[in-house]
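User: Structure with flavin-adenine dinucleotide, tokens only please.
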Amino acid sequence: MLIVGGGCAGMSAALRLQQLLKPQLGSGRAEITVVEPQPYLTYHPLLAEVAAGSIDPRHVVVPLRRVLPDCRVLTARITRIEHAARRAWIDTAPRGERGTPTEIAYDLLVVAPGSVSRTAPVPGLAEHGLGFATVGAAVGLRNHVLEQLDLASSTRDPALRQAALTFVFVGAGYAGVGALAELEDMARYAVKGYHNLAPEDLRWVLVEATDRILPEESLDLAAHTLAELRDRSVDVRLGTTLESAVDRVMSLSDGSRFAARTLVWTAGVRPAPLLRDTDLPLDAAGRVRCLPTLQIIGPDGEPLSDAWAAGDCAAVPAAPAPSTSSVSSASSVSSATVPPVDVELCAPNALHALAQARLLAENLVAVLAGRPQRPYRPERQDCSTSLGIGRGVAHTKRGHLTGRRAWWLHRARHLQRLPSLDRRVRILTGWFLGGLFSREVVSLGSVEHPRSEFEAGFPER
Ligand SMILES: Cc1cc2nc3c(=O)[nH]c(=O)nc-3n(C[C@H](O)[C@H](O)[C@H](O)COP(=O)(O)OP(=O)(O)OC[C@H]3O[C@@H](n4cnc5c(N)ncnc54)[C@H](O)[C@@H]3O)c2cc1C
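Assistant:
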């Protein structure tokens, strides 16, 4: 079996397959290869807390080789898939270097390469924008924000001070809202340590093109989160776009122009580019079309009996079509079960990715055993979001919570979902210690340029 991607969906599918196929893997009758460019899974929902310094960066990643001892983990990238020939091409060259992809054959395919940030041709964005989708980016953003406080406190130039204290986030999905709220909370705390900065000097702007925030969550949760952000004086501009960031001057579509030294781009995601280099049919948004059983729909419109997909890259119906509510056997799934193209799809979030992956593994094993598969029936989504230490918004069966109780609930839910007991314990211990001592708000920007001090010793270069 070839599993493409070792993120939420890929790793969870591999974990479950490893459990279900233990005897076959032990005897060599089955082999699972997981291909992932990073040697670890990144649990994105906790990245904002990494940026805020509440979680150690190493604790939101799960080392694949440690948790998947019965699988073959390759730190590499799939560059092409020809499913008709059951062949894929793997590039093992380190990031930034060019390699010659090698061909591998497989019998069963699991597609889970997730999504990538959606960028836009905004002038100045490539030069001044920062992303927020990796552990490195989260640590870098934390250091950058703290460096701006140092700069604003030390400079005598009022324009530079103002620009250093202005933080712009574009895109109000999970990443933008989470990162802004956690960093605002951290910076508000950090300015207490500066003799000439006050929380009111900081300006936080959230720019969103649509008329709502958190499109991945319920309207209710989004409305409560928006109210909480505005309560904290965050300048949320809905129905607005960033037109230019040239020379660090932000021009917005509502006509406003102001200087800002921090521009974080979190304007949505698009399916992994790899999908375009496969012979699997994609929907209009570029996702792999799937049945509720998570089987991929093939080029002839019929489900493939040996290929599944899950997570952000997969177009999975949010509710099973009526004809698929009864169990369907892999071999007998007919085109009648193929959902219509305008069916409502699962949102790209970690909850769906983890739940789909688990079912995917069970369905794959069911096919091997000749048993019927089950359709994906999304459970009620437990929405919550953390907005800084002791602040959050959460929905429960009984209604909505805000403040500390919502924040604890959010933490408990994500801790439970994190697919590694070891990581859960480490994060919990970190949170406990964080509650005992004051917050650590020193910038370690030099950590990102480890050679700069050494290079300064060669003045002629
Ligand atoms: C900053 C941020 C915050 C978020 N917050 C939340 C939240 O609070 N709640 C929530 O529910 N969701 C949240 N999400 C969304 C959630 O993380 C994703 O929906 C989830 O990770 C999707 O799982 P996945 O397995 O499809 O993709 P991923 O977890 O992204 O995994 C895909 C993997 O495939 C790998 N890959 C890509 N291309 C290739 C290739 N060519 N070959 C091999 N491997 C490849 C990637 O390296 C990656 O590791 C957040 C996302 C981000 C970025």
